[in-house]
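#struct-queue
[09:14] JT: dropping the first one here, sequence first, then the structure tokens:
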Amino acid sequence: MKKLLSKILISVSLFVAVQTQVFAGAGGDLIPVQIDKIQLNPISMREAEWLLGDEDVYFFDVNTMELWAEGHIPGAVYFNVKNWKELLPKNKDAVMVFYCANTLCTSSAMAARETVKLGYTGVRHMAEGIYGWRIAGKLTEIP
């Protein structure tokens, strides 16, 4: 009975914590954190691999230059640049796969969301990133 009550209390506490506003300050006044409502369209590594080589599919690597240089998905474009908007295709319905290092990396998710905000509809996010790709033994290329 105590375990059940404990689990219920923890669940309620987590629910309340998620529902409350979160504040951030960075040394200044505390302000509400903006929570992005854009839901990403995930893509599995298997599905991404099937799309490799398709003319109308774009892969964007949002890693550091060092990680990019260690190897990336064949045909992927290095995306971590200031003029990243110029790298996007003209066709706003084109399929674009964004990835970074692994499931803990948020760079590709942020890039994908920013691309969606520009009106692109074919944006996909591969959360496993290049490390997941390599661990699975999939093909990579070195610049």
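[09:21] JT: and here's the second one, same format:
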Amino acid sequence: MKIVVTESMPTQSGEASNTEANIPQVVLITGAKSQLAEALLRVAADIGELALNSITSENTGAPLKLYALSRSQLDITDAANIAAVFAQYRPSWVINCAAYNAVDSAEHDATEAHRVNALGPELLAQQCLLSGARLLHVSSDYVFGGQAVCDARESGVEQHQNPDLAPNSNPNHLSRPFIELDTPKPLSAYGKNKLLGEQRVVAVLGDCVTIVRTSWLYGQDGHNFVNTMLNLMRTQPSLQVIADQIGCPTWSDALAKVIWQLVMQQCSGVFHYSAQGQCSWYEFACEIQRQSLALHLLSLPVGILPITSADYAKQALNRGISLAKRPSYSVLNSGKLRSTLVTHHALLMPEHVEWQDWRQQLNCMLRRLS
């Protein structure tokens, strides 16, 4: 199999048709300007002509042809626009990267957040059902509320390094990574609408849909925590960073590699994916600075101080900013996904970056910038 990256329009003669053997299987990527869509195209270009010797019999072996469409080209909240785009491109797969990701703004912009994160995925699913296309929908760790716990006395796992800012008040219990069967309990409007989006695509497509929940996504493109920290570290004498929210940073390129494996292996179901390990935003910021200094992306260190979510929210409120409630713990367990891809003999990239610790993934990304 090969992957062809293109932004050109399909021809009127039906270049994008996938009804015959070995005709390119068209993949539509929504939200072309998002950091994940950029990563999907970048990773696809890296794969290029690479022979995928482990493709299963369920895959046709035909090449994939990619079209990344911006909101102006494909508005996922407009059913008529979706139908027209599907008729033009005739996709085999749709990867939905379009999302309303402004977590705080979603609290007072509920209508738009609902349209993009809940209604849009449903409309895509409906058109996929009509056309026979497969849908991969990207969701979030924020569908959880930080409630999954295990008994620390039996788990053998040590408490978080900063007990004064740890998410659990009971010293005998530890938060454990969420698995796909855990019951979602979103705390914010953003999380609730992301969950609604999941529920609606499942209601339409059932077991044929693929949902990937990820966490704390960052990359070299767009607005994300790493780029924000680098900018602040270059311009501010000191920073305050939240230390009682625990999750796992995930590099967009690593997620993109996993997504392409799921597409090429025709996998369905709900999957969790993040890098390995866990940290607080404070620990993440400290590691960004440490590695960036070593790579000469920063010239001088700045002071980084831990702060609680409550104190950070109070400071924001004093500036007239109301913050959405976020989960104190939202680490995802990627075991099901890894087991699924191994079972399907999926292609792993040479560096196996998909399964690296979050610090290693961060280093891979920062090296791209150095």
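[09:30] RK: nice, looked through the second one.
[09:31] RK: Residues 11-21, 49-60, 151-172 have pLDDT under 50 and may be disordered.
[09:31] JT: good to know. The longest strand covers residues 134-140.
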